[in-house]
Amino acid sequence: MSATTRNIRHQTLEQQKQLLEMKMRQVRQTPQIIKASDNVMPSARIRPKSARPLEMNCYDGPLTYAMMNCSPDSSDILGVSRHSINHDVIEDMRKEVAEMTVDERRISVDTEDEESCSISPVKNLSSIHIKENSPFIYPSSTITDTNELEGDVYGNLETFVLEPAAQGVHFKCRITRDKKGMDRGLYPTYYLHLDKGNGSKIFLLAARKRKKSRTSNYLISTDPTDLSRGGDSYVGKLRSNLIGTQFTIYDNGTSPYKSSIEGVQERQELAAVVYETNVLGFKGPRKMTVIIPGMNKNHQRVKVATTDNYSSLLECYRTKNMDDLIELHNKTPQWNEETQSY
Fold first, then answer.
1. Which Gene3D superfamilies match (predicted)?
2. How much is the pLDDT for 92?
3. Got the DSSP string for 32-73?
4. Is 250:270 a contact under the CB 8 Å cutoff?
5. How many CB atoms sit inside 10 A of residue 19's CB?
6. What is the maximum alpha-carbon separation in the chain?
């Protein structure tokens, strides 16, 4: 909007407001007792200005006061008189205010700026240009809850659990804990199942805590009867730090700190989990952040090999180096009165 057009608009509005004020003065000077509202509601007490902050709409253009219920330019006039009210005067004032409002709208439309521009509709994700090295691979059409397919297990289970989920497919899983576990409940066993829509479930993974570990260390296997590191169904492990606030999930590869053997695959990081104190303090569940590798243009997971601590997922999250990584957060906990829990 040019400066000249803006000045013309302000001058026009000022002239119209001055005319309106003159009309109001004439009405007050008439024999009938007619009193304009002046933003004072009937039977309302006069309060100091600091009693309540001024509330305005987010739009701060020339129509700001016209959109308010109790505005200086409002056409509502409250009259208190024992005699008959001059309806012709009130009608003339209402027409004057209506004409001024129409003029304001006409000026606003003719000189449309960024404040009065309508919001353009969201583009379809298929029309968004995605970089080739972007970790976010969008499907050909927007995926919603209504057109998502129910996930199912196909092929070899060991391969299936390590591959990224297919696009447009929803996998709903549930984790259960067997408190008995091993050694009189000291090492409980955890199970991951895929929930089906018909009420059935399919086993995916099992995990147990390893013995004689300085930190929490869980073995993950696709065979619930063989939870050993040397088993054929061993697919990875989960390891935490000393205080149990940061966890890293690895595949079944070999640690880079151990002696390297030819033909042995070096392990990769599949995910990292960080727990923090939430806004409720220690009274509620902790805030959980999950960092996972993104996908490349071939729909394959970006490889994150930890040759040192500076290239790990946790270190990338700490330094905010989130290139080719995806950051997820859990929902804010809500208190349930029925169960008395979050």
1. Tubby Protein, Chain A
2. 67
3. S-B---TT--TTPPP--GGGS-----S--STTTGGGSTT-TT
4. yes
5. 12
6. 107
Residues 94 and 145 in one domain: no
- Supply 305's token pair: 């090999």
The whole-angstrom separation of Cα 163 and Cα 154 is 11
- Assess if residue 115 is contained within a domain: no
Last residue of a domain, one of 65, 83, 110: 110
Please check whether residue 82 lies inside any domain of the structure.
yes
Q: What DSSP state is assigned to residue 340?
A: T
Which CATH number belongs to the domain containing residue 170 in this structure? 3.20.90.10
List for the chain the helix, strand, coil content (%; round to 5).
20, 25, 55
How many whole angstroms separate alpha carbon 267 and alpha carbon 166? 23
Residue 253 to residue 243: CA distance in whole angstroms: 25
- Considering the domain architecture, whether residues 41 and 95 belong to the same structural domain is answered as yes
Q: How many domains does the chain have?
A: 2
Verify that 169 and 24 share a domain, yes or no: no
Torsion of CA 13, 16, 20, 22, to 10 degrees: 120
pLDDT digits (tens, 9 = 90+) for 18-47: 888 888 887 777 665 544 454 444 444 444
How much is the average pLDDT of 155-163? 89
Domain boundary residue, one of 110, 133, 168 = 110
Backbone angles phi, psi at 22, to 5 degrees: -65, -40
Tell me, yes or no, whether 334 lies in a domain: no
pLDDT of residue 88: 61
> CA 335, CA 338: separation in Å to the nearest integer?
9
Q: Is the confidence at residue 62, as pLDDT, over 60?
A: no
